[in-house]
Amino acid sequence: MTIAKDGMGDEMSNAPSDGVLTSSGTMASIVYTRMRSDILSGDLGPGARLRAEFLRQRYAVGNSPVREALNRLSSDGLVVREDQKGFRVSAVSKDDMLELAKTRSWIENIALTQSIAHGDVEWEEALVLAFHRLSRAIRNSDATDYAQDANWEQCHRAFHMALIGACGSRWLLNFAQQLYDQSDRYWKLAGIKNTDPGNDIEEHRAIMEAAIDRRSDDTVALLQNHCQKVADLVLSSKSSAFKD
Amino acid sequence: MTIAKDGMGDEMSNAPSDGVLTSSGTMASIVYTRMRSDILSGDLGPGARLRAEFLRQRYAVGNSPVREALNRLSSDGLVVREDQKGFRVSAVSKDDMLELAKTRSWIENIALTQSIAHGDVEWEEALVLAFHRLSRAIRNSDATDYAQDANWEQCHRAFHMALIGACGSRWLLNFAQQLYDQSDRYWKLAGIKNTDPGNDIEEHRAIMEAAIDRRSDDTVALLQNHCQKVADLVLSSKSSAFKD
DNA sequence: CGGCGGCTTTTTTTCGAAATTTCTTGAAAT
DNA sequence: ATTTCAAGAAATTTCGAAAAAAAGCCGCCG
């Protein structure tokens, strides 16, 4: 089931089976995971100062775990560090969003092309499974905005990772995940309501089928379109969050 | 002179003008820089355990700075963390080297194409300057193996960064730098002697000129060729460092 | 002879406080 | 009124030791 050979991948290494980062073990890892989640969800807003005392209290731990988590997050680009002046949640802007979307499209383009070219039967099956779970998550969700659903989120992430899972480069997978995280943050900050379950399922199904049929160009086009649509939505939202 | 808009870039942010990472400020940052350098140079060999006591003594600091540096390096992929079992220098292998070379070629391909498409006059000038410094570093070096020369190393890195400096994505620049670092480590571990200064200069000159002439395809081809040659050398070296 | 539990030792991880730096405030001087 | 400077406050960074976990050791039992 797992594709990467495991060894360098930082984020997914502590995932129980696939997707979720429960990352246990040390306090530092727990704080890292929770804080990452809080930043992605917008609970810790862009630009917010991350004072030691505040975080120690919030996560009920001492100084060291907080600091270790912050240092990891800063390498992930979710937090910025200014020597001697502390940490803050990295800012957002229209320009950043555009840069992000551009970069993501480049990276996913390569990764997807490679994945389709080299994906084996295992990859196909993992993809089908990921799609099945995603569509079920969408159907099962009774919320008017299922994007809030933690399960949907995990399935959606897993699907996109499964797509490129056979690209043959842990580096690329890592990069793609970083970019996915960032996009995810913008999506949530924009506060977009996901209103059309049927279309959402079909869009993902089309991507999956094209991938499995090894129609490389089609798949890439569909995925780019999918991502572009998301980016447009984010940018055209009232976007009170982006001072721009 | 600087191209990136500055803000998220982690590595280069503390560089005085360009290239060198003296990254001062906090002890943690100093240790991070020195340790990174020690790993890249092979002074801390692949797979080596990084015990707290050893590092505290080596860098003459307390526990916290060492730990912060380790956490940052682990996100960079130069160090692997195993919760509750400490840190070690990330391993090397033939497969990893191939994966790395592949990924680097993909990333640099995009970055270079974009840089050539969007590079302005400032970019051209920075590139010319970087080349000039590189060629001077090569000529001035009296060592039989100028790759040992710290100055050459910095100039070489600066040149390759200048090439893609106008790609328009800080993400991509960051990724490219990570991959460059890793390649650099393999290069040094392989212990290759750089014996042909003249050819080295001309190879870089050809790349620079093609880039400035905006011959996108040519430039990419030249760069790929350049990187491929390096990868082949590394893999065909006696490579006592790679268990396979 | 080999594997298994319990003990000691080593190493990692975490805490709380000291040291250092930055930020704030307010009074004095131009 | 504005700027400058210094003292106090707040926050970050660093240290050293305590707590927790892993690794090594040795005798014991199957």
Walk me through this protein's architecture.
Two copies of one chain form a homodimer. Chain A has helices spanning 27-40, 52-59, 63-76, 94-118, 121-140, 150-164, 170-190, 197-212, 216-236; strands spanning 49-50, 79-82, 86-89. With 244 residues, chain A is mainly alpha-helical. In chain A, strands 1-3-2 form a three-stranded antiparallel beta sheet. In chain A, β2 (79-82) and β3 (86-89) form a beta hairpin. The radius of gyration of chain A is 18 Å and the shape is globular. The A-B interface holds A 5, 7-8, 10, 14, 24-26, 28-29, 64, 67-68, 71-72, 74-77, 80-81, 83-84, 90-91, 95, 99-100, 102-103, 106, 110, 168-172, 174-175, 178-179 and B 5, 7-8, 10, 14, 24-26, 28-29, 64, 67-68, 71-72, 74-77, 80-81, 83-84, 90-91, 95, 99-100, 102-103, 106, 110, 168-172, 174-175, 178-179. The structure holds a DNA duplex (30 and 30 nucleotides).
Keywords:
homodimer, 244 residues, mainly alpha, Arc Repressor Mutant, subunit A, Four Helix Bundle (Hemerythrin (Met), subunit A), 2 domains, 9 helices, 3 strands, globular, DNA-binding
* Total of helices of chain A: 9
The residue fraction in helices of chain A comes out at 55-70%
Helix/strand class of chain A: mainly alpha
What does the largest sheet of chain A look like?
Answer: 3 strands, antiparallel
| Total number of distinct structural domains of chain A | 2
List unreliable stretches of 5+ residues of chain A.
1-21
Q: Specify which chain pair forms the largest interface.
A: A-B, 41 and 41 residues
CATH topology of the largest domain in chain A: Four Helix Bundle (Hemerythrin (Met), subunit A)
Please provide the count of β strands of chain A. 3
In round numbers, the mean pLDDT of chain A is 88
- The largest sheet of chain A has its strands arranged as 1-3-2
**Structural shape of chain A:** globular
What is the element string of chain A, with H for helices and E for strands? Answer: HEHHEEHHHHHH
> Which band does the percent of strand residues of chain A land in?
under 5%
Please name the fourth-level CATH homologous superfamily of the largest domain in chain A: GntR ligand-binding domain-like
Between the first and last Cα atoms of chain A, what is the distance in angstroms?
42 Å
Computed over alpha carbons, the radius of gyration of chain A is: 18 Å
| Assembly form of the protein | homodimer
Highest-level CATH class of the largest domain in chain A: Mainly Alpha
